[in-house]
Every structure is written in C-alpha cells, then in structure tokens.
Design goal:
The chain is built from 26 helices and 4 strands. It is mainly α.
C-alpha cells in the first residue's frame, strides 16, 4: 500500500499541472457560470414531466409555456457556454500577457458566441435557424470557438494589431476600436472553418466533431470506460487534487449530451438507455461526494470506537449527505491516508458498474434531467429517473456495497486510533496531576506549530485593536460548497465580536469579476494549488491572499472565534508589510 502511495506522490507535480491546465479550467469555469441557467431550466422540464405520472394533465397553453422557458434556457446552453468559457479563458490568458495590455473579456465573449453560430448552426432554405445544435449538442463547437477566439485576441494584443486612436479619445471608446481587428479576425476564422467543413462533409462543424469522436464516447460509456473514469476522479482527489476538474472536462459534451438524449427518448416513448450522464456521475459514482463517501460518516458514528472518528462522523454527516465531503476528506483524514486508498477508489467503480447494470439489465431509466449536484444521492436518483422505484433499490444496494467495502478499512484505521488514544489515556493516568502542565505545553506547541491562526487571548483582549473600517473577505473553493462553511463561520464570528468583517463564498474560476471588491482572499485546501496563479492578480489589486491546509481549514470552519482570529492576523500581517 505504501509503495503505491509513494509512487503516486512522485507524480504529484504532474497531476498538479493537469489540474491547473488553463483549457480544462476554462471549461469547468464556463459550465460553472452557466449552472444557474441549467438548474433553473430543470424545474420547468420537471413541471412538464411529473404531473402526467399522477394522472394530472396540465392545460396545453401552460404546458407549452413551461416548454418554452426550458427551450429558451437549457435549449441555448451551448450558445451561452461559448461566451462563459471564452470569458474564463480570457481571465487565465490575461495573467500570461506581459506589460499593461490586456484582452477585453466582454469582446471575446461576444466574438465566441458569434463564432459558435457560424460553427454550429445551420439554416433552412428560407433562412430560418436550425436549433439542433444550440444546446448541449453544440458544446464542442462552443469550446473550439472560445479557445480559438481568445488565442486570436492574444496575438493581436501582443503584436499591437489594432486601430490606434488619439490620446484625447475616451478610454472606453478607444477600447472598442482596439477590438475591431481581433473581433474581425476571429469571425473570419470561424467562417473559413465553416465553409471548409460544409464543402467537405456537407454538415456543420459541430456535426463533424460529434461524428469523429463518437467511437470515443461509445468507449467511455462501456463498463470498462466508465470504470476508468470513476477510478481516476477519486485517484486524483486522494492526492489532494480536485479530481472532477481534471477528468470531467474531457467528457463534458457526452455527459450533458446524453442527458438531453435520454430526455428526448423518454418523451418519444422510448427507453432512455444512456448511463454516461452528468447526474449519474453525481448521484451514483460520487454518492456523497468523490470517493462515494455517503456511508462513511455513519460508519464512523455507529460502528467505530475511537473518539476521533466518532467526532468526525458527527461533524461531517450532514455536509456529506449533500455531497460536500471535504470535512470528511481532510478531517479523518482520508486524503493520503493509506488505510483508505483502496475503498476510496474502488467504491465509485463498483457504483457505476452496478448502476449501469441496472440500466442495461433491469430497465432502470438513464438519468434524464440536470439537477443540482448537491441533492442527496437517493433523492437525486429518484427524481432523475422520473420517480422510478427501482432507482431506490439501486441506492439501497449501493449504500450496502459501499458499507461493505469501506468497513474493513475503517475498522483497521479505528483500531490504530484506539490504541493511540489508550496509550495517551494510560500516560495521563500515570502522571496524575502532571497532565495539566503537559496539556498547557501541548497547547503552546500547537500554537507555535500553526502560526497561521492567532490565539484566542490575543483577539479577545479588551485592549486589542479593532478594525476601523469594513473588511470584505472572499473564501474560494472548487465548487462553492466548502467555502460557504468558512464564510458562515466568519460571519458568525464578526457578529458575535462586533468586527466589521463581511465574508462571502465563491468558486475558483468565477472570481475574476468580483475579486476587486475584496480585501482578503482565503483559498480552501482543494484549490491551494492555484495560489501562484491567483497571487499575480491579488498583488496587482493590492489584495491579501492566504492559502489554508486541510486540518487547519476544518478547525476554522468549526470555530467562529478561530476563523475571526485567522482573518485578523492576516490583515495585521498586511498592515505590517505596508510599514
């Protein structure tokens, strides 16, 4: 076991490099920006699909109105993602451009969306737009348009290919003229690609891409393909790298495209057979978060003997039910813990294989809606199969299998902790009254070993200096769930101790526009690898940036006072640097 971990650690820099790839980051962030559209539209598709199951027939006009809202939101998601991906990619590219020049993200958004139209959308003989590729079918065209557009803008900015205006012209107007050339070149490039592909295959560019990679999608949806996907995701996470950000961008088009295809099949009265869908991964492969950890807190609470694991179980079972399992991953810890390597990577593989078996053999419907990833897995699966009872059977079976997989490893780890706790208790009993001094010394050692947090005595002192102005703190994590925990703790501490601190939670990648509004940025453990990339922006804006570690972050989220002390100390460091 240790041999495997040692080998993985040797390649951690390579894994970090993959995770920080600007193309994969842009795809992830582009979809994250479009999630409000996706989640909102899912409500209306449920409104048209659920009532008939209970014999309720909605008025035709109302049903058409629900469909119209869905078609004009989710039905255009490819078009929207072209813009959001271009904007996210522009932010990353601007960090790599030297000097004072920069790429206009608003302009790249518009250019990418126009380019998407050229690559993906056909017309009828009468000139009407064909809507087949506006949605998820056009995702690949959206990515190509976004990346090519930003690269063209980058060349134009670096080579200063622009229309130069006199100094007297206002900056906003001058910027518009600066964007004329790169915008024109981008659109012409997309137009040339469109003409070439249509002359060759007589199909839009998006149809060509789908045809070429169809074998890859078929392979990905096989038992072996899905097992590999949901083996790699927890494998990366075990190394402390956000696995979904590394693996999922490569199959994003298939995940959402298959979801749309399943819904179309179901509406047509056919069987929705696709298993490789976004929410199948969320509710089956990542049941309770990466590593299929839904059952682990309950194992800790009810079946383990060590005080540590029981406490971790009690603190983490609610977040884990909603797929926020970082308190468990860093608190147990599971990350880089040799006891948990096998169950952490094996459980997701077993889950997707069994889940696909239920679709292929037992006629469970493939997931057909795009629902929030934060729904508890059993509820999400029940909704996503359109309330099919067999989905609950699947969930019960998966929870049982995951328990059987995790339990032996949890017991082995628990035994080691119980032995350590017993040794500590025996030492305390033997030393009688000396344990108080030892505890005090241990407290001092802890404080000196974790200089990131100030002591309680420092900030609770009545003579301690109070902040003289409002301070805004932004906590960033991968998806927004983990950062919300620390932001809430900071808000609670600020109110309790009357400090003018306002804390907000965000997701890395969606922070570019809001970053200038904050005084301090705190990175959660899973995005600390982005520290150097973000540092360039925070230094330019005069913002304090600090990264946290796993155990430290968990401690801060559980204690509002510690969270407040942590912020106060880092703000004081900033003031000292100015002096």
């Amino acid at each position: 076991m240790q041999f495997i971990i040692d080998r993985l650690e040797r390649h951690q820099k390579f894994f970090d490099k993959i995770s920080k790839n600007i193309y994969l980051m842009a795809i992830k962030d582009g979809f994250l920006a479009a999630m409000p559209i996706i989640l909102f539209s899912s409500i209306f598709i449920l409104l048209t699909s659920v009532p008939p199951l209970f014999g309720i027939n909605l008025p035709t006009d109302l049903n058409n109105w629900f469909n119209k809202i869905y078609n004009y939101t989710m039905g255009f998601v490819g078009f929207y993602v072209a813009g959001t991906t271009a904007k996210a990619f522009t932010g990353s590219m601007n960090q790599r451009i030297k000097g004072s020049r920069f790429i206009n993200s608003t302009s790249t958004m518009m250019a990418a969306m126009c380019g998407f139209m050229l690559l993906a959308i056909g017309t009828t003989k009468s000139g009407a737009y064909l809507g087949d590729y506006f949605g998820t079918k056009g995702i690949l065209s959206a990515f190509v348009s976004a990346f090519l557009t930003v690269h063209i803008y980058k060349v134009c900015v670096e080579k200063d290919i622009t229309i130069k205006m006199p100094k007297e012209v206002p900056g906003a107007i001058s910027q518009n003229f600066r964007d004329v050339f790169p915008f024109s070149f981008s659109i012409i490039a997309m137009g040339i690609i469109d003409v070439a592909i249509r002359a060759w295959l007589h199909v839009p560019f998006s149809a060509m891409i789908a045809t070429l990679i169809a074998p890859l999608f078929k392979g990905a949806e096989s038992y072996f393909g899905m097992a590999i996907i949901w083996f790699l995701i927890p494998l990366f996470w075990f190394m402390g790298i956000h696995g979904p950000s590394v693996v999922k961008p490569a199959i994003t088009a298939a995940l959402y495209g298959n979801t749309t295809a399943n819904l179309a099949l179901f509406k047509a009265g056919d069987f929705p057979f696709h298993s490789l869908t976004e929410n199948f991964g969320n509710f089956v492969g990542e049941l309770g978060g990466t590593g299929a950890t839904f059952v682990v807190p309950f194992i800790f609470m009810f079946l383990m003997k060590s005080k540590q694991l029981k406490a971790i179980g009690k603190a983490s079972f609610i977040p884990v039910m909603f797929a926020v399992n970082e308190p468990l991953l860093f608190g147990a810890p599971i990350i880089l813990n040799p006891y948990f390597f096998i169950p952490f990577v094996l459980s997701p593989v077993v889950n997707v294989v069994v889940g696909k078996l239920f679709i292929d053999v037992f006629n469970m419907r493939g997931f057909m809606y795009v629902l929030s990833w934060a729904l508890p897995g059993p509820i999400g699966a029940f909704l996503d199969t359109n309330f099919q009872p067999i989905s609950l059977v699947l969930m019960a079976l998966l929870l049982l299998l995951d328990t059987l997989i995790y339990l032996p490893f949890c017991k082995a780890y628990d035994a080691s902790l119980v032995a350590k706790e017993a040794a500590v208790d025996a030492e305390d009993d033997a030393t009688d009254g000396v344990e108080l001094a030892g505890a005090t010394a241990g407290s001092v050692a802890t404080d000196s070993a974790t200089p990131e947090t100030a002591t309680t005595e420092e900030t609770s002192d009545p003579e301690a200096k109070k902040l003289d102005k409002q301070v805004k703190v932004l906590v960033l994590c991968a998806g927004g769930g983990t950062s919300e925990q620390l932001a809430n703790a900071l808000t609670e501490g600020a109110e309790k101790y009357d400090e003018p601190i306002v804390a907000s939670a965000g997701a890395y990648g969606s922070h570019h526009d809001i970053l200038p509004n904050y005084d301090l940025v705190v990175l959660a453990p899973q995005v600390r690898t982005y520290y150097d990339d973000l540092k360039a922006d925070t230094d330019r804006l005069g913002i304090q940036l600090v990264a946290t570690k796993g155990q430290q972050y968990i401690a801060l989220t559980r204690d509002s006072k510690k969270a407040l002390d942590f912020v106060m100390e880092n703000l004081n460091k900033k003031d000292d640097d100015k002096k």
